[in-house]
Amino acid sequence: MAMGVGQSFLSLLLLVIPMLILSSLSEVTATKYYVGGAEGWVLKPNVSYNDWASKTRFIVNDSLYFKYQIDHDSVLVVTKEAYDTCNTTHPIHAMEHGDSETKLDKPGPFYFISGKVDHCKLGQKLTVVVLSSGPAPSPSHGSHDHPGHYAPAPAPTSGSASVTLSGSVAVALALGVGMLFI
Questions:
Q1: Which segments of the chain does DSSP mark as H helices, in order?
Q2: CATH number 3.40.50.980 given to 31-155
């Protein structure tokens, strides 16, 4: 028995729509983390930067915000070797203009040190390990939208992911539902 054009289209939609919905379920929102909270990027923070980072779940596209005074400090993104030895001579990226933000654009470790060698040697450095993806922290527990928040991001829970349907998914759903009534 031959299928009509309308039935073929409906069959295609019934296959494509669930895939589009599932792909939308995996979308996560990037989070902006304030390194050092209200203290900012300082020589002797109340909580060690690495202790904080080890309790925080970073994912690709999250960002780190470093608050520091221009001409008093800087932040360097460096290799593991430069991190271990506090070598400031050839950074991957230098942030020297006071308050600075950097995007965690790939999975893996990122190494940050103070641009002042003596500060770095006294422990002003940070290692962040970025995961390729994961559920976004809920705004009430892990969002860091202002410098006063310093708590680590919570471990993911079954209800912490949010669903966002893109315009194309919404159109496909509307067409699919509409085709059911033809």
A1: 5-25, 49-54, 80-85, 117-121, 167-180
A2: no
